[in-house]
Design a protein that fits this description.
CATH superfamily of the largest domain: P-loop containing nucleotide triphosphate hydrolases
Strand content: 5-15%
CATH class of the largest domain: Alpha Beta
Helix content: 40-55%
Order of helices and strands: HHHHEHEHEEHEHHEHEHHHH
CATH topology of the largest domain: Rossmann fold
Strand order of the largest sheet: 3-2-4-1-5-6-7
Bound molecules: guanosine-5'-diphosphate
Number of domains: 2
CATH architecture of the largest domain: 3-Layer(aba) Sandwich
Largest sheet: 7 strands, parallel
Distance between the termini: 26 Å
């Protein structure tokens, strides 16, 4: 139990493997073997600016059923066809309480996970982001704190939404719109095209009321069909992301953002290590258990209990 508590999302560095990686440290390793072999699906134009010595981390969020897996499969295959090496990680919000772990299954993106230029859902280990994949897609289901966590890791945050406005939009937390650099209305095909258009208009106007994250980029809304090939929007999605990357990179804004993220993660690490120490302290643990019981019965205010725990911990530290 203690180990579960101490890995709670609020105070730990959840899924250590998805913590931000120094872009500098990845640079030496980001030239894929296929750069020598020639791109898969040859004849395709390659995106040299990103592939050569740079890494781009893209967060993808959206409600269950919106088509994240389908999009990532199509998008990932498109990227590998352009000579990129793509890794896909997923933050599992259902285990957010125990640290937002990485999903282990490879079943959903079947084609992409078999591709030798792609790395889908690695098992957790430190530094996987630095392992020579120039584009890293970090997927999360739009639940709880997982989006914020992902937004603090990635260079660009992309929100996938279904082809209907109105109710969905009403229910959409403002917070997630604020995090988004790009909104993709998925399933813009067949009978759904009209409602996708409608959603695009709705989200575009909703974004007008959302404060931009950076003065260098205004969030956009595009329509995509993940099932229609590159021409149906997957290509546009990449062009838009690449445009974002180029603007952010050349303006120095991306480096600033990554620096800021590293700062955030430094403090998360501090909280996490402090919590570890606190939970290892038997005196504190004993006291905390008693206080928990009292807080449950409303005999002690939570703030006061927290204060006592911290005091106990500090006393223990200073006497050791
Ligand atoms: P996830 O839960 O967000 O990962 O969603 P999935 O990728 O599993 O997709 C949910 C359902 O939507 C599946 O039945 C997909 O076939 C369907 N779907 C995904 N993308 C599209 C699309 O672009 N167009 C249409 N028509 N269906 C889609």
């Amino acid at each position: 139990l203690a180990s579960q508590q101490k890995t709670s999302l609020a105070n730990s560095t959840p899924s250590l493997d998805v913590k931000p990686v120094d872009s500098e440290s990845t640079e030496a390793t980001t030239t894929p073997p296929s750069a020598q072999q020639g791109a898969i699906g040859s004849g395709e134009q390659k995106d040299e600016s990103i592939r050569l010595g740079k890494s781009f981390r893209i967060g993808l969020s959206g409600p269950p059923g919106v088509g994240k897996s389908t999009f990532i499969e199509a998008f990932g295959m498109y990227l590998v066809s352009k000579g990129h090496r793509v890794s896909v990680l997923a933050v599992d919000p259902s285990s957010a309480r125990t640290g937002g772990s990485i999903l282990g299954d490879k079943t959903r993106m079947t084609e992409l996970s078999r591709h030798d230029m792609a790395y889908v859902r690695p098992s957790p280990s430190r530094g996987t982001l630095a392992a020579g994949y120039d584009i890293c897609l970090v997927e999360t289901v739009g639940v709880g704190q997982s989006e914020t966590m992902v937004a603090d890791i990635v260079d660009m945050f992309v929100l996938l939404v279904p082809p209907a406005g109105g109710d969905e939009l009403q229910g959409m937390k403002k917070g997630i719109m604020e995090l988004s650099d790009l909104v993709i209305v998925n399933k813009s095909d067949g009978a759904l095209v009209d409602s996708a258009r409608y959603a695009q208009i709705e989200y575009t106007s909703a974004l007008k009321f959302v404060k931009a994250i950076t003065s260098y980029w205004k969030a956009r809304v595009i329509r995509v069909s993940s099932m229609g090939g590159p021409e149906a929007g997957v290509g546009l999605a990449w062009d838009t992301m690449k445009e974002y990357f180029d603007i952010m990179e050349s303006s120095g804004e991306l480096q600033k953002k990554r620096g800021h993220q590293r700062k955030i993660w430094m403090w998360r690490q501090v909280s996490s290590e402090l919590m570890d120490l606190l939970h290892e302290d038997t005196q504190v643990r004993k006291m905390a258990t008693e206080l928990e019981a009292k807080v449950l019965k409303n005999e002690v205010m939570s703030g006061a209990a927290a204060h006592q725990i911290v005091e106990k911990f500090m006393k223990g530290m200073s006497s050791s």
